[in-house]
Description:
The protein is α/β, with parallel strands linked by helices and 343 residues long. It has helices spanning 12-15, 17-23, 37-44, 60-64, 84-89, 102-117, 120-128, 135-139, 157-168, 182-187, 195-201, 221-226, 244-253, 294-310, and strands spanning 49-52, 71-74, 93-95, 149-153, 172-176, 191-192, 204-207, 232-235, 258-261, 281-283. The chain folds into 2 domains: 5-100 and 292-326, Rossmann fold, CATH 3.40.50; 102-283, 3-Layer(aba) Sandwich (Rossmann fold). The chain contains 14 helices and 10 strands. The strands form 2 sheets. The protein has a 7-stranded parallel β-sheet with strand order 6-5-4-7-8-9-10, with helices on both faces. Helix 2 (17-23) runs parallel beside helix 14 (294-310) and helix 6 crosses helix 9 (157-168). The radius of gyration is 22 Å and the shape is elongated.
Amino acid sequence: MQLPKQAQNQTVETRYSLELEALAPIADIVDIRADTPEEFAEGVKDMDAIITSWGLRIDKQVIDSLSNAVCIGVGSVGVDMVDIEAATEAGLVVTNVPDVFIEEVADHAMALLLDAARRTQAMFKYARDNEWYKARPVLSRVPRLMGQTLGLFAFGNVGHCVARRAKAFGMHVIAHDPYVSELEISHAGVEPVSKGELLERSDYISIHSPHNEETEHAFSNDEFDAMKDTAVIVNTARGPIIDEPALIEALQSGKIAAAGLDVLEQEPPAPDNPLLNMENVTVTPHVASATTRMRPETRRRVGREVALVLRGKWPMSCVNPTVLPKVTLERWQPYPMNRGPNR
């Protein structure tokens, strides 16, 4: 298991007490403290399962070194820190935590949207610098939120929750997601659209897709060219979904109006990253999911997922269900297969 350095001075039982609620009867937890992929691969080679949320990427090299492992448990929604294809080829079940902190991320997405809509970065600067007279003319050019169109890029759990919040503000909500049926989108009171329509019609775009080969730089020069010059983009998903140099150019040239970003391509960003010094950009340090409930419940959940696999049962949240024919796990839970496994 990988854990941040600030937590490494406690005993294993204390550090991992929440994961051990489910795992204690069947497994011991071993800390792997490694600075390189090679050291990590050596440390985990004999483990029965791996739990991670951050740190070194579990790539093909690490996966190929595993001799006993049956499961990789990821303590987040995103699983881009694991080579899913390599794990599937090796017969490893990969689990995630897809539903613990959905409401938190939706709250943060709306906070960034509202921050951009009301230009609070610029408003704070005017107030701080005693230039109050400059503020009202800026907002006098910004339409009120009611009646504006919000475009959702992906319509999973977070997208559903953001749509509900946006409609409470009187926004019209549209969504593009080729992996969700139009009926499901429509039943949520949201209009299904193509990606091109999303770009052309949206006053605000909020990104909620996973990061993979398909979504890498899904928003780049062509996309920003297609958007309204008054548009605002919000990203609480993964940084590499947006081509950052293209975003910077679009903001500096006026192709789009503003951005609210909880994630960046490089985290932490370089101190000279232009996004950190733009009045029309709000950046938060990848904290959309953070609340008092999030981390404890996420850790409990990842412990339960791994415990299920170690007990020979199919987990609640498997991200690579095509591994099923390669394993002997018991399929037991009465969950439908809508968008993803057991969802």
